[in-house]
What does this fold into?
Amino acid sequence: MLTLRQSAFDRSAFDRLETDLFKRLEQQLHTAERVPAAEVHETETAYSICLELPGVERDSIDVKATDRNLVISAERRAPQPEGSEASPAALLSEIRYGTWSRSFRFPSGIDREAVQAVYRDGLLTVEVPKAQTLTSVNVKVEG
It folds into this structure.
């Protein structure tokens, strides 16, 4: 004879647990940092990075280069209400506003003085030439 026993976790407990998990997941997704999609290409002489930045003003984009790193940061500002009437609250908003930063590390040195960036039609294209000369130092071993 088969007997069914009720578990310490009845179905309603599972439902509550599942609901809590989905609520936490939704909250984490809502607050997660989003970075723009990127595409990186390499040639013999340079790297080319293209980032999607729709709705970002050119003045808010910052590109910094070091010996082997490129750091790109920007801010997408929320629209300000026009006129004296406040704009109505959005029923649904999946657009992320705020600041973000993204860095790229290259396998070899880059010519940071020759880095060029162009922002057009929501796409940022950064041309990063490879360093033509690598600095090496001979160290004398003393005994």
Observations:
- The chain is about 15% helix and 30% strand.
